[in-house]
Amino acid sequence: MPGTDDRVLIKKHIVAAIQMAETLADIGASTVLIQDYLGFDFYKIYAATAGSTVRHRDRLLLTNVPDAFFDGYDAIGNLKGAPEAVRTSTATQAFQWSTEYLRGARATPERLILADLMNRYGMHRGVYFSLATLDSQKRDLAFYGTREPLTGAELEDLGVLATHLLDRVNALEERRDEDGVRISSLEMECLKMAAQGMETSQISRKLSLSVRTINYLLNSLCRKLGTETVEHAVAVATRAGYLR
Description:
Strand content: 5-15%
Number of strands: 5
Structural class: alpha+beta
Number of helices: 11
Order of helices and strands: HHEEHHEHHEEHHHHH
CATH superfamily of the largest domain: Transcription factor LuxR-like, autoinducer-binding domain
Helix content: 40-55%
Strand order of the largest sheet: 2-1-5-4-3
């Protein structure tokens, strides 16, 4: 960690970046600043509500964890997505974690496979931060890497920075709701694949959905973004920060 004076300056810089964030892309960039400051390698910002989806990536608002990790994660099955202490808590708190947690007294075959998967991707240790909000929602942020557990001072820094970040996420989502633009997780998946140049039939096979359903989702996206074509929707979504 930097010295005390440097830490103060870096934290001020990060908070300023968070406060100026206007898009999800800005939020992602600010989250990477926190990630690097604390010495982690990956992050996840969980969506406030994820519905009944079983795909782990659909539970997330933003992440820089490699897609291949999620393919391996979803292949395991019967996993909850976050430690029980995080999922069941309604309080603002930080929870430090390691793959040894998965190998503990409540280990299952699935949790042991997950521990191996996380170790392969350099996610040996991490920390979850939960922010309780006034509307009874809950925001979860997680960082992963190979560093040692956070010190008391680092946990305090995490609490300050994560609270600023998740509060800004809430503000941006409230603004988006007021503007009438609410993109579902499936629509977002279609949008990402369309941005990669995939055809409707390819998206259909990738998501195991019918072409008719994919067309419905893409048409819904165009209506929400005020565009006539998917190509234009991708451009608008990129400018708005939905795509990184």
